[in-house]
Amino acid sequence: MLKLSKNITKLGTETAFEVLARAEILKQQGKDVINLGIGQPDFKTPEHIVESAIKALRDGHHGYTPAPGILELREAVAADISKYKGINVNPDNLLCVPGGKVTMFFAIKMFGMEGLEIMYPNPGFPIYESVINYSGAKPIPIPLREENNFSFDADEVLSLISPNTSLIIINTPANPTGGAISRKEIEKLIVGLEKHPHVAILSDEIYSRITYDNFEHVSLLEFEEIHDRLILLDGWSKTYAMTGWRLGYSLWPQSLIEHATKLAINCHSCVNAATQFAGISALDGPQDSVDTMVSAFNERRSVIVNGLNAINGFSCKTPIGAFYAFPNISETGLSSRKMQDLLLNEASVATVAGTSFGHLGEGYIRFSYANSVENIKIALNRIETILP
Ligand code: PLP
Description:
By secondary structure, the chain is an alpha/beta fold. It folds into 2 domains: about 130 residues, Aspartate Aminotransferase, domain 1 (Alpha-Beta Complex), CATH 3.90.1150.10; about 220 residues, Type I PLP-dependent aspartate aminotransferase-like (Major domain) (Aspartate Aminotransferase, domain 2, 3-Layer(aba) Sandwich). Helix content is about 40%, strand content about 15%. The strands form 3 sheets. A 7-stranded mixed beta sheet has the order 2-8-7-6-5-3-4, with helices on both faces. The chain has a 3-stranded antiparallel beta sheet with strand order 9-12-11. The structure holds pyridoxal-5'-phosphate (PLP). The site of pyridoxal-5'-phosphate (PLP) has 13 residues, from α4. Pyridoxal-5'-phosphate binds next to α4.
């Protein structure tokens, strides 16, 4: 009998990858599957970014780099934070990592163990709850309700804090709901957190550049009073259509950066060198491709929201950010999982059941609208055809 570690069986998964695998099998069987399941931009990484990586390889950047990332990259990140979040940060507090997920894994492992509690959004990105369980800490869901436009109520969040709470995870704009937290609610939360100085905060702002209708993204970094316990998660995956490059960054308080860097050295040593040069080029170069992508998402957003609201039994709030629609499907009488399977098997449309994002996702289904308007329209037609 193998002596596996106790918590390894507590790890969950990201169903979007399973759906992707099933969609691929159906495609190989000749089915014309429209993938509205996976959360990645359908755009190519802008050419000037690709060229920088090719140049870096040609210039001989083939070796290890410093574990936190090359200084030029961290300086470019600091300049970007100053430009978009209005705060000056020290590049020495930045850690470049292989994707946004790595920061959440490190932060949850740093603050999670038996006897402690970690609060996380539900429905929310599934890896939060999965890694909290793996760490041994108790997952405490922060409910994100449709009637609140999938934002939270700061008073309710504060009421869930206990002496054992070690970390609160905030994600705005959010996956899977497309909801975002208003300045008013964030300010209320920050004021309340002053009474709980034992609680660290992980702010996942990976969709901060993808918002609509002039929504003002509020970064938790704006609040200096929590700088000594705030971990900021961001990255290139979504903003620059770079999901496959595996590049993200985090900002850590002075007291934690050394632990985070040691985790990096123990885990992956450093990010692929050529990718780091691509990352500099993304931040320093022209931003028009980001604007083009976001306006394409905006057009698709109205097509999908209107289309979903026209389907019997579906009702869909208008998302404020990211590229997901999260309609309520409870009136169809089907569970989220049944609906996911029905849409994939009968309509060849890949989506992800709301329950893949936590138990509070029952009655919902996630559509990623990172696909062409044409495909979205075909998918909506197919869904209308198969539903009674
Ligand atoms: N955070 C959220 C909320 C996400 O939705 C995702 C990816 O879907 C990530 C983090 C992880 O991003 P990455 O692909 O850079 O690891």
